[in-house]
# Entry
Amino acid sequence: MAGARTSTARRYAEAIFQIAERDGTVEKWLKQLAVVADAAADEELDRVLENPHVPIERRIEALESPLGEDRVPQMSSLLTLLLRRRRIELLPRIYAEFRRQYNLREGIVEATATSAAELDADETSALQTRLEQMTGGKVELTTKVDPSLLGGIQVRLGDTLIDGSVRGRLERLRNRLAAGTLTP
# Structure
């Protein structure tokens, strides 16, 4: 079922992206989708959004209120459609897919760095600079912590995994020992 939701979210995002490109409002849509996706993920607001006894106009207003007056005109149409079809839970996926399409258009590569301990600002900046040198373009870097790595870092850059973790090195050493390919 998750795959069906992802493809549904992708179709919504593609349609919105086409409209945004046509109207020259891609960046505005990107910012506003982030806001409404974040709002829709709020548990308290979710109870209001899912309550059929609350008039739909009030539910739309609850989602749109953080946007202020400078919102894209089609946002109300999108929110109304999602609420009427009881698909408001798709908003975070729609935003993620819209962002993926934006990054693709702008030549931005998404990267996730997972380390055993929190990276400080200098380490994060140095890693981002190195990744941008490797790719020759802009890199949007997110960081995560996974103590099971023991040390080092893993970087997922698009579809590529760069494993510089201690756990990864130990696993490669174990595999070489098991295969008998380790020579002194």
The two ends are 51 Å apart (CA to CA). Helices lie at 2-23, 26-40, 43-50, 56-64, 75-84, 91-106, 121-135, 166-179. The mean pLDDT is 86. The beta strands are 108-115, 138-145, 152-157, 160-165.
